[in-house]
Amino acid sequence: MAHLIKSHEDLINPHIRGLGISATLAINARSKELIEQGKTVYRFGLGQSPFPVPDLVVSALKLNAIQKDYLPVRGLQQLREAVADFHRRKDEVDIQPDCVLIGPGSKELVFLLQLVFNGEIIVVSPGWVSYVPQAKILNNELSFIHSTFEAKWQLTPKLFSDFLKKRNHPDKPALMILNYPGNPDGVSLTKESLVEIAALARAHHIFILSDEIYGQLDHKGKHISLARFYPEGTIISSGLSKWCGAGGWRLGTFAFPKNMKWLLDGMAIVASETYTSVSAPIQYAAVQAFKGGIEIEEYLWQARKILAGLGNECVHILRAAGVKVHDPVGGFYLFLDFSNFSQRLHERGIKSSSQLCLQLLDDTGVALLQGSSFYRSEEELTARMAYVDFAGPRALAAARTIPLHEQLPDDFIKTYCHKVIKGVKEIVQWLTK
Ligand SMILES: Cc1ncc(COP(=O)(O)O)c(C=O)c1O
Questions:
Q1: Which end of the chain has fewer CB atoms < 10 Å from its terminal CB, N or C?
Q2: 88 CA to centre of ligand 1 in angstroms
Q3: In the structure, what pLDDT confidence band is assigned to residue 404 with cuts at 50, 70 and 90?
C-alpha cells in the first residue's frame, strides 16, 4: 500500500488540504505560549464574552445536571418554544416552535446549512472567520461582496445591488450570510439599510442567513432583525455564546420561516447522523436564558453599558493617533485600519496584516487578528481587536452599584478595564515609535 501513497497529504480530503486551524484559535494558542514564557499578553485576539453566565442560568444548569437522556435531534421542545418566543418578543417576527433548530453552537449550524443548501453562498468581506473555510470544506460555490471602510465594513444596499447586477447566473439559488452587529467590525445595519436589503433580496430570490449572535449586545439595546422586513426569506441565527457569556456551553439556535422548513428538515437529517442532539443539561438551562425576564435584561443592560463605554474609549485613543476606526454599535470588536501608517510600516518591513499582527504581538504583547482572516487582501493593513481582556465579573459587580439609568462614572473604564486601555496605548506607541 505504502508505494501507492506519495505523502500523508494524499490521504486527506482535497477540500481540507491547505486549510489551517481556525484563525481565532491559532492566535489564542500563540498568546498562551507567550503567557507561559511569563510575558504580558493583551488578549484581543479571541472574541469571547468577558462576562459570567447569568446566575439564574447557572442555577438552572446545576438543577439539570441530572438530565441524562438523549434529547430530540431538533432540540428540547420547551427550548424551541422559548426561542420562538424570544424572537417574537425581541425581533417582532412570527417564529413557530417547530421552525426552531437547536445545535451545538451556531457555528455547527452554519456548517450544516452550508452542507444542506444546494446553491451559491454569498459572503460579505470583512466577515466572520469561519463562513468561508466551511464553504471550502464543503466545496461550495462562493461569491464575495467586498465592503470598505467608507461603507463601515458592512453590506450597503448599493454594494448589494451592484453585486446583483453582475451575477453570472442570476437564476441560480443563492444564500447570503449577513452578520450584524458585526464580527469583525462592531458596526450594525441601520433600519433603512435593512429595508432596502430586504427588498433587493426578495426581488432576486436570495435566501439570507442573518447571523444575529451579537444582536442582544447592540449597545443601545436596539437591535433590529432583517427578518422583520424579509420574514419569508430569512433564517435568524443566535445562541448562548455571546449575549449570555456561555461560548463553552456550545448551544446555538436557528429560527426559520415556515416556508423554509424544508431546510431545517434537511439539516436535522445530517444532525441525526452526526451529533444526535445537544447536551441535555445545557438545553434545559438555555430555556431559562431564552425565557428572559428582569434578571436577564438587567444583566444585558449592564453588559451593554460597559461594552459601549469601553469601545468608545478605545476608539477615542486610536482615532486621536490616526488609526481609522468606526464607532462601535454592538458586540465587542473594532476593525482597525492602519492605512495611515502604511509608509512607516512598510519602512519597518511590515507589508501584510499577518506581519503586522505577528510583529505587534512580539514587540508589545498585543494580540490582534489579521484582516486577511476576514477575507481582506494580505496587503491591506487591517486587524480585528476584541476588547474583552478585562475581568468581566468584577466590572459587572461594580456597574451594579451604580443606578441602572445612570451613566458609568468617568473613571469606571480606567478602573475596571485598565488592561484593555493599556493595550490600546501600546498599539499607539508601537505605531508612532
Ligand atoms: C459572527 C459569529 N457567528 C457565529 C459564531 C459562532 O458562535 P457559536 O458557535 O459559539 O454559537 C461566532 C463566534 O465567534 C461569531 O462571531
A1: N
A2: 22
A3: confident
In eight-state DSSP terms, residue 53 is P
Is the CB of 107 within 6 Å of ligand 1? Answer: yes
The per-residue pLDDT for 10 is 82
Q: Using omega within 30 degrees of 0 as the cis cutoff, is the peptide bond preceding 126 cis?
A: yes
pLDDT in tens, 218-268: 999 999 999 999 999 999 999 999 999 999 999 999 999 999 999 999 999
CA distance 52 to 402: 19
The answer to whether the CB of 253 falls within 8 A of the CB of 238 is: yes
Helix ranges restricted to H, 15-105: 23-36, 55-63, 77-91
Q: Is the CB of 43 under 6 A from ligand 1?
A: no
CATH entry, 56-291, from 3.40.228.10, 3.40.640.10, 3.30.420.10, 3.90.1150.10: 3.40.640.10
Q: Residue 228's closest CA among 292, 160, 180?
A: 180
Q: Looking at the domain that runs over 9-52+295-432, which CATH code has it been given?
A: 3.90.1150.10
Whether 211 is in the pocket of ligand 1, judged by its Cβ within 6 Å, is yes
- The residue to mutate among 48, 107, 238, having the most atoms of ligand 1 within 8 angstroms of its beta carbon, is 107
Write out pLDDT tens, residues 146-171.
999 999 999 999 999 999 999 988 88
pTM > 0.90: yes
Please choose, from the candidates 157, 150, 151, the residue with its C-alpha nearest in 3D space to the C-alpha of residue 192. 157
What number does the ligand 1 atom closest to the CA of 331 have?
16
Mean pLDDT of 357-362: 90
